[in-house]
């Protein structure tokens, strides 16, 4: 399918062919959910932890004798029912990551790209480059285009001036094509792909 290409000054720059196998899929909310959940689980630190009975400071002596006191029998002051005691079945340091087949991950990325195109939120840019490398200049150009909440995906190598200028603009993210992922695509309103990014993504996902 044909898609218009524009410049950063909002001038037409021809058109590009988008592969139906990458940009023309039906939107699958279940696939998007699985991939985003996999991404966020892998990112989770998993450093939360509570102390078990063997890690609590305190005496190992029995608090009082077993029989004759009329009280419930107790074996340790470090047990859970005592103040300052251990936690039963508390969280431990672990990885929250889980496996997801490569085919599902690839399908998720293709579905996310297709969803943006279906919503008319996909823009193809001739090139993401900034001659000055100044945030003020780039912010003005993006504001004129109405990109207040956008993800810009370039080819394998980012333009250094563009990446530096975009770094301090709130609501604008810049990624190389190998960093394209479902979560970042969905969390931004507008998806901006350079022609170089389209070429590489289609080669990668076909």
UniProtKB/TrEMBL annotation:
A GO BP annotation: translation
UniProt xrefs under InterPro entries: Ribosomal_uL4, Ribosomal_uL4-like, Ribosomal_uL4_dom_sf
Keyword Membrane: no
SUPFAM superfamilies cross-referenced by the UniProt entry: Ribosomal protein L4
Protein's UniProt keywords contain DNA-binding: no
GO cellular component labels: ribonucleoprotein complex; ribosome
Gene Ontology MF annotations: rRNA binding; structural constituent of ribosome
Protein keywords: Ribonucleoprotein, Ribosomal protein, RNA-binding, rRNA-binding
Gene3D superfamilies: 3.40.1370.10
Family in the record: Belongs to the universal ribosomal protein uL4 family.
Function as written in the Swiss-Prot or TrEMBL entry: Forms part of the polypeptide exit tunnel.
NCBIfam families: rplD_bact
Subunit structure and binding partners: Part of the 50S ribosomal subunit.
HAMAP family: Ribosomal_uL4_B
Protein name as it appears in the record: Large ribosomal subunit protein uL4
Source species taxonomy: Bacteria, Pseudomonadati, Pseudomonadota, Alphaproteobacteria, Rhodospirillales
Gene behind the chain: rplD
């Amino acid at each position: 399918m044909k898609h218009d290409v524009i410049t950063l000054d909002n001038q037409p720059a021809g058109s590009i062919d988008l592969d139906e196998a990458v940009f023309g899929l039906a939107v699958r909310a279940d696939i998007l959910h699985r991939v985003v959940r996999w991404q966020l689980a892998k990112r989770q630190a998993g450093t939360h932890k509570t102390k078990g009975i063997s890690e609590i400071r305190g005496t190992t002596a029995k608090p009082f004798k077993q029989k004759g006191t009329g009280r419930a029998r107790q074996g340790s002051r470090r047990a859970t029912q005592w103040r300052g005691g251990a936690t039963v079945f508390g969280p431990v340091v672990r990885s929250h990551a889980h496996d997801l087949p490569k085919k599902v991950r690839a399908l998720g990325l293709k579905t996310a790209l297709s969803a943006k195109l279906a919503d008319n939120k996909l823009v193809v840019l001739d090139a993401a480059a900034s001659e000055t490398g100044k945030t003020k200049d780039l912010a003005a150009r993006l504001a004129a285009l109405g990109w207040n909440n956008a993800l810009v995906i370039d080819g394998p190598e980012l333009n250094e001036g563009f990446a530096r200028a975009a770094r301090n603009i709130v609501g604008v993210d810049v990624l190389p094509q190998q960093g394209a992922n479902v979560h970042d695509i969905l969390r931004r309103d507008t998806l901006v792909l350079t022609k170089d990014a389209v070429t590489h993504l289609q080669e990668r996902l076909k």
